[in-house]
Design goal:
Distance between the termini: 34 Å
Largest sheet: 5 strands, parallel
Helix content: 25-40%
Number of helices: 5
CATH architecture: 3-Layer(aba) Sandwich
Strand content: 15-25%
Strand order of the largest sheet: 1-5-4-2-3
CATH superfamily: Rhodanese-like domain
Oligomer: single chain
Structural class: alpha/beta
Shape: globular
Number of domains: 1
CATH topology: Oxidized Rhodanese, domain 1
Radius of gyration: 12 Å
Order of helices and strands: EHEHEHEHEH
Amino acid sequence: MALEIEPSAVNAMLQNGAVLLDVREPDEWAEAHITGAIHIPLGEIARRANELPEAQNIICMCRSGGRSAKAQRSLLQSGRFGEIFNMSGGILRWLEAGLPVERGS
């Protein structure tokens, strides 16, 4: 089952040990990213999933939610992690909500 999370609920999950995974491309990351996120572009997930802590909940995010849904499916298939969430609306909805970002790489 695909789990979704609203941007407004992400900080609470992060404080409880969840990991935020940003699967956007490097230029998108440099434009704006969420503090503390791990950056692994979608095309690199298969070979770099070992960089993610096992048995922890992971929140996948991208620009609008499509690529992060693919990352979510990929990570779910591995069975190595806790629950895997997709952040609804991606960074676009995060920015829309006025939540903070960092700019630059």
